[in-house]
Amino acid sequence: MQKSLAMIFGFALLFGAVFFDQANAQNMMNKQKMAEDFHSYANPQDVMVKHVDLDWTVSFEEKTIRGTATLDIVRTNKNAPLMLDTRELKIEKAETSADGKTFKATTFEIGAADKFLGSAMTVQLPPDASKVKITYASSPNASGLQWLSPAQTAGKKEPFMFSQAQAIHARSFIPLQDSPQVRVTYSARVRTPKNLLAVMSAGGNSQTSARNGDYRFSMTKAIPPYLIAIAVGDLKFKSLGKRTGVYTEPSMLEKSAFELADTEKMVIATEKIYGQYEWGRYDLLVLPPSFPFGGMENPMLTFATPTIIAGDKSLVALVAHELAHSWSGNLVTNATWRDFWLNEGTTTYIEYRIIEAIYGKPRREMESYLGKRSLLDELAQFEDKDEILHIDLKGRDPDDGMTDVAYEKGALFFRHLEETYGRERFDNFMRTYFKDHAFQSITTETFVEYLMKNLIDKKYPTTYASSIYPTPSRETINEWIYKPGLPKSAPEPKSDAFNQVAMQAKEYLNGTKTLSSIQTKAWTTQEWLHFLQTMPDGFGTEKMAELDKAFNLTKAGNSEIEFQWLLMSIRENYTAADARLEAFLIEIGRRKFVRPLFVELAKTPEGMKRACEIYAKSRPGYHPITQSSVDAIVKCN
Ligand code: BES
Ligand code: ZN
């Protein structure tokens, strides 16, 4: 019996069938590991892209990135074609290679376009193909790129271009498997106009001002495709510390370096809690004001809105947040967009921890309080299905998941675990969790299993155990992750400073205190925000005018305070802020500010009329992401 087995084995070996078996075993392993991603056409279970080599020419005249993407593939099903994600790409040709040197044309097909997903690209593979080279150009309307005229920059002289790939926009400038569970390394050669500098989310960014229009980059750690990023413009660098620095337009450089001075300290503080920073450098790129987000955690090079440059470092929680993604998100990544809360909830929790480490506990409590308040406002309006951490996004735009539920409910869940198990034990758990899943993309289910095994099922004594804080069990975990609303065990951030602010606001509102007697001298931005948020809806234009006279709020200069004030101005019909509102909406394209202001305007017919007038002027300057968000709100005829 044994003899014949050995003979069969030998026979099989002779004919190379062992290869087949290995491939099959690999195939099964991959199949098990792959999650169902509703937002990608890719077939990584059969053919998986491992490396992307880009050779690009960036043309500001054409508003295109033109060139080639050469993909290294691993094939577990030799009969399967390669399935890629694309959106509005102009594909010139596809070639394959077995040796990586000689390429031969192959056939491909572009499927019908879905409004969220774009088009599948099917590339036929000869039996021995291990590389696929695609020659293509992006569309001038690529959803993941914004092309800025000189007028839209700080310097007003040179054009600017930047990418924003999360969630599913990488496919609008690279044909690839645009699923966060398909991790790739990448290299790039980028040609630009000679006087401009290109930077990427990779190694190779230049710290000198030397420019020749030909730049090379390399990301040697496997990352999800949504972290591939590029910007081209009149950029300069300033060092902030040993591993940290900032890129921005020359006229923004000093201000930015001042604002971001605590960055190196933040890296050190985060490493202390969560383990080594794995990416080498941590630089920031401060973009022109049309950047649609606050920040984007592109590895080695966080992209940030200039609206955090307040002059007093009061808005740098954003840096803490994007830096935290170096662990939660970039090192351990959501496998699909329904697991987005794993990226953002963990990150928001860590953001608050970094704030505490650098600026103290009172500041952490203020920021957490504002976060929870914003969540509660949202929950009051949401349908149940959108209040679930493990949100079902099938058939929807994955960006719909970018709500306070993922961020703040997620953060409260982690804070609940911290409060329950004590900081030391919980920090140990998180550190080990990052280590055990480094450079992996995982689902909510994988996380829950790990949490049960390494924390909950250990039956550690908890610091709290009562009817409000029951010892966590699978039921409590399920309630947090799979049920709508906020569990009873949700933590309550508490701020003495905020209590003081609220008390004084109340006394002002009931007439027992004048504005001039309120002690605002030492207020932080967070206290100002709390003060303004304490003012009840419909409290009137008279009071608005009083506040403005006392505190000059229409000219606040701090983007968060100004946003809050403008929102109230619309609500209270305070017309003295009209001109400022228009200027703000034309200057700034950050969706978090722009969208709520238009929503507020759109609530009345007169407001909608104003919204239309303003939007006609502001829309051309907005990023495609902000445009499509506002298009859904502002209806003009
Ligand atoms: N990764 C997100 C930005 C994002 C999420 C872009 C989903 C596209 C789709 C980033 O880390 C983020 O959360 N940014 C926040 C700032 C933060 C301080 C809450 C933002 O842009 O508002
Ligand atoms: Zn984030």
Q: Can you tell me about this structure?
A:
The chain has 637 residues and is an alpha+beta fold. The protein contains 19 helices and 21 strands. It has helices spanning 2-14, 17-33, 253-259, 263-274, 317-324, 340-359, 361-379, 404-421, 423-436, 444-454, 474-482, 496-509, 525-534, 541-551, 559-571, 578-587, 591-601, 605-618, 624-631, and strands spanning 47-59, 64-75, 82-86, 90-97, 104-106, 108-110, 119-123, 131-137, 145-148, 160-163, 184-191, 197-200, 214-223, 230-233, 236-239, 244-248, 282-286, 295-296, 301-304, 332-334, 440-442. The strands form 5 sheets. A 7-stranded mixed beta sheet has the order 5-4-8-2-1-11-13, with no helix packed on it. A 5-stranded mixed beta sheet has the order 15-16-17-19-18. Strands 9-10-14-12 form a 4-stranded antiparallel beta sheet, with no helix packed on it. The model is unreliable at 1-25 (pLDDT under 50). Residues 166-167, 293-297, 317-318, 321-322, 325, 344, 399, 402, 407, 592 line the site of ligand BES.
